Amino acid sequence: MKQVVILSICLLLCSPFAFSQKESKDVRAGNKLYKEDKFTDAEVFYRKGLGKNDQSFEATFNLGNALYKQQKYKDAVEQFAKAATLETNKNKIASAYHNIGNSMFQAKEYSKSIEAYKMALKQNPKDDETRYNLALAQKQLKQQQHQQQKNEDKKEQQQQNQDKKEQEKMSKENAQQLLDAFLQDEKEVQKKLKEKQQQPSKKPPVEKDW
C-alpha cells in the first residue's frame, strides 16, 4: 500500500504502515500519531522503539517517513538506507530505496534520486509508482541542468561585459593621461619660449669709426 504525498510535485511515498507484522507497542503508538499528522511526536515513539530494538526494520523505516514529513530529508535518507540493510525481503528493500529517491528528489539532488529509484526497480521491476517517480526525476534533472547552463552562460556574458567596460575605461584613462602629458609638455615649451622672449637681447658693441 502506498499513499500520495501532495507537495509541489506529487510523489508516491511508501506508507509507514505497509509492514505491520512485527510492530512493537512504541511503533504502533508512532503510527497512530503519524496518521494524525503529528510527525514530531511519531518520531519520538519510533526512536523509542529503536532504543529497544535497533534492528527493527519497521521502526527504522517508519522513522524515515516521519522525518521525511518534517522535511528533514537528509536524516530521512539515513534511516531508509539503514532500513534497506535490515531486510532480505525484496519488496521491503525496494520500498526503502523508493523513499530514498523521494527524499533526494525533494532535496533537488535529482541524480541521486534517479540512482535510488533504479535500485528500487532492481528489487521490484514491476513497481509502476517507482517507474513514474524515476521518469519525473529524470525530467527534473534535465530542467535543472538546462537552468544551470543558462545561469553559467548569463554569468559568462556578464563577466565579458564587465571586462569590456573595464577595458574601455582603461583605454579612456590612458588616452586622457597621454593628452594631459602632451598638454603639460606643450605648456612647458610655451613657458620657456615666453621666458626667452622676455630676456633683453645682447647685441655686440658697435665700433666707432674714428
Order of strands side by side in the largest beta sheet? 1-2
Task: Just name the CATH architecture of the domain at 2-143.
Answer: Alpha Horseshoe
Helix content: over 70%
Mean pLDDT: 85
Total count of strands: 2
CATH class bucket of the domain at 2-143: Mainly Alpha
The CATH superfamily of the domain at 2-143 turns out to be Tetratricopeptide repeat domain
Q: Can you tell me the overall shape?
A: rod-shaped
* Quaternary state of the chains: single chain
Spans of at least 5 consecutive residues with low confidence: 1-10
Tally of alpha and pi helices: 7
> What proportion strand?
under 5%
Cα Rg: 39 Å
**CATH topology term of the domain at 2-143:** Serine Threonine Protein Phosphatase 5, Tetratricopeptide repeat
Order of helices and strands: EEHHHHHHH
Largest sheet: 2 strands, antiparallel
Could you tell me how far the N terminus lies from the C terminus, measured between alpha carbons in angstroms? 143 Å
Q: Decide which structural class fits the backbone.
A: mainly alpha
Offer a quick outline of the entry.
This protein is mainly α. The chain contains seven helices and two strands, in the order E-E-H-H-H-H-H-H-H. It has a domain at 2-143: Tetratricopeptide repeat domain (Serine Threonine Protein Phosphatase 5, Tetratricopeptide repeat, Alpha Horseshoe), CATH 1.25.40.
